[in-house]
Specification:
- The complex is a heterodimer of chains A (162) and B (257).
- Chain A is mainly β.
- Chain A is 10% helix and 38% strand.
- By secondary structure, chain B is mostly beta strands.
- Chain B has 2 domains: 94 residues, Carboxypeptidase-like, regulatory domain (Immunoglobulin-like); 121 residues, Immunoglobulin-like, CATH 2.60.40.
- Chain B is elongated and about 75 Å long.
- The chains are: A mainly beta (162), B mainly beta (257).
- At the A-B interface, strand 1 and strand 2 of A face strand 10, strand 11 and strand 21 of B.
Chain lengths: 162, 257
């Protein structure tokens, strides 16, 4: 009973001496929104792969880290990749036949290239982990009607703000 | 030269000398009321009870900013909330001046005002207190910047933002910022811009001051009803892992001065 009386007195004291400050809105905020516009810039190294003379029906592959794709800009990017036909050969995704060849990427992203852009490395950061290493595997035609002319193929990687 | 010809120039010269002498003799002086003139009254809490004896009452001449203080006194009949003050004690007080009587006690604050009117004799000005209110507002409360290049700056100018003390007490205002976020991406508020780090600054006079994630003093002794104009500057990250629209806030907090 005595404890109860002490408690009641304590509560009364608190009520009596609490300053009646009314806080209507003691804080106010400004909300700010912004979207970053950055410079998209990538590079790949090396930029050439001279395979020399290969036997028909065979393939030639780099290591899976032979090429290094780098984000040289200041904003995260998504990339896409494709390859061109050569002067006399056509790029295919199945088993190459006469005057046909195939290119596969090697590494954590394994895709068969086409002449159309396909998604390649995504979210390539400009600072943290700003490189991606990959390789290529080139499959020769089973037959060649060009008479042994050197063929040139271009692999293109395109970047967009990610 | 005839006498008539000299007459007008002499009169003009004498007139100018008299005028000059008058100007030299006149010295503006700050004078108060010549005779005692009393303001008196009672100070009440919001619940109608009187404030205790000894409560400070301040009387300010709004025409010149000068003030005096007095205290409530115990009249001996249980009345403890009576005050009186001789306004001739306020330097520069004059008939017709607006006198603001304010008082605060036990977390309540209030004021009343009236003009000095000597012809009325003593003037009664009661003060009714009310709980202290902390209340601030900012206009505008949004700043949508659109798309800004990384590594660049964007700022407002000309006092674009306006913070107003909407409460009834003098306040100090604190300021802080937040990190910017969007869908799991984050830019950190930093003193300088860097990779995924941006900076914010404010300007209330002529220099830019950094805003951090901790409260810091923004403005002090902002009177009730008064406003503070200011500008903000955003310094974009030098590089970003995201191009999502980022959102963050600048928060202002009022505390009783």
């Amino acid at each position: 009973m005595k404890k109860l009386q002490v408690l009641i007195v304590g509560i009364l004291l608190i009520i009596t001496f609490s300053a009646p400050v009314v806080i209507a809105a003691d804080t106010a905020t400004i909300t700010i929104t912004v979207t970053a516009s950055g410079t998209v810039s990538i590079s790949v190294s090396p930029t050439t792969w001279a395979m020399g003379t290969l036997a028909l029906g065979t393939y030639n592959a780099t290591s899976s880290t032979y090429f290094t794709l780098s984000n040289d800009g200041d904003v995260r990017v998504d990339t896409q990749i494709n390859a061109s036909n050569s002067q006399n050969w056509n790029l295919v995704t199945g088993t190459p036949a006469t005057d046909e060849f195939k290119i596969d990427t090697l590494g954590t992203i394994a895709i068969t290239l086409t002449t159309s852009l396909q998604n390649f490395k995504q979210d390539l950061d400009p600072v943290t982990g700003n490189t991606y290493q990959f390789g290529l595997n080139f499959t020769m035609p089973t037959a060649d009607t060009s008479g042994g002319v050197e063929q040139t193929i271009t692999v293109t990687i395109k970047a967009a703000q990610g | 030269m005839s006498l008539v010809g000299l007459k007008n120039p002499i009169i003009m010269a004498v007139s100018l000398m008299i005028l000059l002498a008058t100007l030299l003799i006149y010295v503006p002086r700050v004078i108060s009321l010549d005779n005692p003139h009393y303001f008196y009254g009672y100070v009440y809490y919001q619940n109608g009870t009187g404030v205790p004896a000894g409560t400070v009452v301040t009387l300010t001449d709004d025409n010149n900013g000068n003030s005096m203080t007095t205290t409530t006194i115990d009249l001996g009949n249980g009345t403890t909330n009576y005050y009186q003050a001789d306004l001739s004690q306020i330097p520069g007080s004059a008939d017709g001046d607006l006198i603001i009587v304010n008082c605060s006690s036990n977390g309540e604050v209030g004021e009343n005002s009236t003009n000095i009117n000597i012809s009325l004799g003593s003037q009664q000005v009661d003060v009714h207190l009310e709980p202290e209110v902390l209340n601030i507002s900012i206009v505008p409360s949004q700043w949508n910047q659109g798309t800004i290049s990384l590594g660049s700056e964007n700022s407002t100018s000309g006092g674009y933002f306006n913070l107003t003390n909407q409460g009834n007490v003098i306040i100090n205002v604190l300021i802080k910022g937040s990190n910017a976020t969007s869908d799991g991406d984050i830019w950190y508020l930093n003193n300088t811009a860097d990779y995924n780090k941006f900076a914010m600054q404010y300007n209330i006079s002529s220099s830019w001051n950094a805003i951090t994630t901790s409260y810091a003093s923004f403005v002090t002794n902002l009177n009730k009803g008064n406003s503070q104009l200011f500008d903000l500057k955003l310094i974009m990250p030098t590089a970003s892992s995201t191009t999502n629209q980022m959102s963050f806030t600048i928060t202002f907090k009022a505390v009783k001065a």
